[in-house]
Write a structure and sequence with these properties.
Helix content: 40-55%
Shape: elongated
Strand order of the largest sheet: 1-2-3-4-5
Largest sheet: 5 strands, mixed
Number of strands: 5
C-alpha cells in the first residue's frame, strides 16, 4: 500500500473516530465501527485491494486506531491527522495541578503517555489517559515504584466536554488511588 493511500485512510478513520467520540466508546461500539469501516469503500474497499478481509480489519485496529489516543495528544506518526487535538501535557498539568508545575524537557514517554514534572525541587511523574484507562496508568506507576523509583505519581484521568467523568466514577478512582498510594486527578478535556 502506498504512503499516500495509508495517509488518506488514516485521515478518514481519525475524522470518523472523532465524530464517534472514540475514546469513550465501549468495546461493542468500537467493534461496530470496525465493521462499518470494513463496509466503507474508502476504507475496507481500498484495503481489500492489498489485504484479506481479516487482515484489513486487523490493520485498522492494530495500526491507526491503536495509535489514536496518542495521536490526539500530538504523539506518533498519525498525529497530523487529528483535526482537533486534545490538550497537551503542559495544559493538562496546569489544569490538574495549577500553574506552578513545569514539564521536564525531553521526559515524555508513551504507553501510557507520561512526563516528569517539577516544582522547585519536587519532581513527580505525571501520566494521563482517557476515562476507562486508569488501570494502565496505575500499572506503570506500580511497576516503577516496585523497581525502586521513589518519585510520586500523579495519574490524570481525562474526560470530555461531551462525556464528563461521572461523580461516582471519580470517587471510585480516588478510592483506588488511596488504596495504591497514588494521586489521581480528573480533567475534562475541552
Amino acid at each position: 500500500m502506498s504512503k499516500d493511500l495509508e495517509d488518506k485512510i488514516a485521515k478518514k478513520l481519525f475524522a470518523d473516530a472523532e465524530a464517534l467520540g472514540w475514546s469513550y466508546l465501549t468495546g461493542d461500539q468500537r467493534s461496530a465501527a470496525y465493521s462499518q469501516w470494513m463496509d466503507d469503500p474508502e476504507v475496507g474497499g481500498r484495503l481489500r485491494e492489498f489485504l484479506s478481509n481479516e487482515k484489513a480489519r486487523v490493520w485498522i485496529k492494530d495500526g491507526p486506531m491503536k495509535e489514536y489516543a496518542r495521536a490526539r495528544y500530538g504523539v506518533g506518526k498519525y498525529a497530523q491527522y487529528v483535526e482537533n487535538p486534545a490538550a497537551g501535557a503542559r495544559d493538562l498539568v496546569e489544569r490538574a495541578l495549577g500553574p506552578n508545575w513545569e514539564v521536564v524537557p525531553g521526559s515524555r514517554k508513551i504507553k501510557p503517555l507520561r512526563v516528569l514534572i517539577r516544582r522547585g525541587e519536587d519532581e513527580r511523574h505525571f501520566a494521563w489517559a482517557p476515562s476507562g484507562q486508569l488501570k494502565h496508568l496505575a500499572w506503570v506507576a506500580i511497576k516503577a515504584e516496585a523497581s525502586g523509583d521513589a518519585r510520586p505519581w500523579v495519574l490524570c484521568v481525562v474526560g470530555s466536554f461531551e462525556k464528563p467523568i461521572p461523580a461516582d466514577e471519580r470517587a471510585a478512582d480516588r478510592r483506588i488511588g488511596a488504596r495504591c498510594q497514588l494521586e489521581i486527578v480528573h480533567v475534562d478535556d475541552l
